[in-house]
Known about the structure:
Blueprint: H1 8-13, E1 21-24, E2 28-32, E3 42-46, H2 58-79, E4 83-87, E5 103-108, H3 125-139
The protein binds adenosine monophosphate (AMP) and zinc ion.
Amino acid sequence: MAADPQCVFCKIVAGQIPSVKVAESDVAYAFMDIGPIATGHTLVIPKEHYVGVEDVPAEVAAGVFELAARVAPALVQAVGAEGMNILQNHGRCAGQVVMHMHVHLIPRRAGDGLQRPWPAGQADPAELKRIAEKVASTLSK
Ligand code: AMP
Ligand code: ZN
């Protein structure tokens, strides 16, 4: 199984450093975050080392989200939450600190005081179209 010997999450998968396991599947592992943003904050990772979402093979990505979707409602129930932010920081500029792709499950309650770190902008319809066409053109190459 592909692993990076320097990677903290690979060490967790290998049992070389401790973690509090929530659940696992053939391809994915869910465990409690040691720096929880909210009570019950859980991480879901592929068992193999991939840095970003674009590196993760489709079947592994499906397995990570299968486990995330299975854990999410049980986690909501376990901590008495009402919903959840499911997010993935991609790249250092976006706040990715651990360079082993992972999905955050952050339980939420109304009035819990957590706020999105960014305000909504105002869409320029021409710009939306231009960007969408550029992405589509890149994808079609
Ligand atoms: P990110 O900023 O998206 O890379 O998130 C990395 C997350 O990994 C943070 O929420 C950390 O609290 C968490 N984390 C780092 N090391 C560990 C560890 N040994 N066990 C559990 N969670 C960890
Ligand atoms: Zn890793």
